[in-house]
Write a structure and sequence with these properties.
Helix 1 packs across helix 2, helix 1 packs antiparallel against helix 5 and helix 10 runs antiparallel to helix 11. The N and C termini lie far apart (62 Å). The protein is mainly alpha-helical.
Length: 330
Amino acid sequence: MLIGYYLHDLSPFLIRFSESIGIRWYGLAYVAAFITAYFLLKRFVRLGYSELRQSQLQDFITYGALSTMAGGRLGYMFLYNFEEFISRPQIFFYFLEGGMASHGGIAGLIIFTFIYSRKYKVGWRGIGDNLCTVAPLGLCFGRLANFINGELYGRKSNVPWAVQFPEEIREPGFASPDGLNRTDLSNALRPSNFTEVSDKSLFEQDTFVIEQARESEAVQDILRDYLNARHPSQIYQALLEGLALFIILYFIRKKGPSLHHGILTGTFFIGYAVFRIAGECFREPSDGYIGSLTRGQFFSTFMILIGIIFIVSAFKWPKTTRSLTVKEKN
C-alpha cells in the first residue's frame, strides 16, 4: 500500500460505564442539535422572525425532539428494515442497536409542527421555516457522530484523505484490496489473541476485532493490509447537508419577517435532497438500490417535489410573520 491511510480508531463513547452503556457521541449529537436549535429559535423570536413566544420554546423544542427521534426510528424501520420490523415490531424500541433515518426524522418533525400550529393557532409554514433553518445543524452533528462511530462509510477510494473503517469487516462479502476474505483475516489475527473469541458468533468475533482496532497496534497493523480505503462520506454529508445548507438558509432567513412563509421550508427540502443525492455518490450503498438510485437518493427525489410545492404555496397563498409586542414575545 503506497499511501498510509488513516485507520479509524475512534470510540463511539465519550464515557463508558460498561460494555454497552455509556455516554455516546451519537446521543450527544442530538443534545447539541436541540440546544443549538433552542438558542437560534430564541434569537428568531427576539428579531421578530417567529410567531412563537419565548415561553413556548422549551416545550416546542422538547416535543419536536421527541417527534424527530420517533420519526427517525420509524422511518428506518419502514424504509430500510421493513421485513424484520413486521416480524418483530418490538425492535422499534431497541435504540441502542442503532438505526435512524433522516427522511423519517424530517417527516416526524413536519407532522409535529402541523399539529402544533393547529393547536396554538400559529402559521404552520411560518414555524416550519424557522425549524428548517436550524435543522441542518442537527444533520451536521449527526453525520459527524456517524464518522466517530465508523458507520455509514463511503465507497472505495484512493484519495489521499481516504479512511480505513474496521466496521467494513461486518460486510457479508468482505474482501481486502488483494481479494483476501474474512477467513484469511481470522487466520492472520489469531496470533493477536483472536483465539479467545473463536467459539463466539461471527458478530461477536467482528465486534471483538473492531474493539481491538481502537486499542491494539498489532491488530491495527494487520487490519491495514485487509481494509479498503474509503471516502469519509460522513464528513462530506456533514458539510453539504449540514453546514452548507444551514449557511444558505440562514442567509435567506436574514431577509426578515417579510419573507413569505414556505420559502425556507421549500428551500430546505430541495437543498437537502440535492446535497443528499450528491453525497450518496460517495457513500457505500449498504441498503441496496431502487432502480439505478441508492435508497437514499430515491427517497430524496420526492423531497424535491415537496420543496417545489412549498415554494409555490409561498407565492400563491402569501403570508408573512406578524409582529409580536414585547409582552407577547415573552
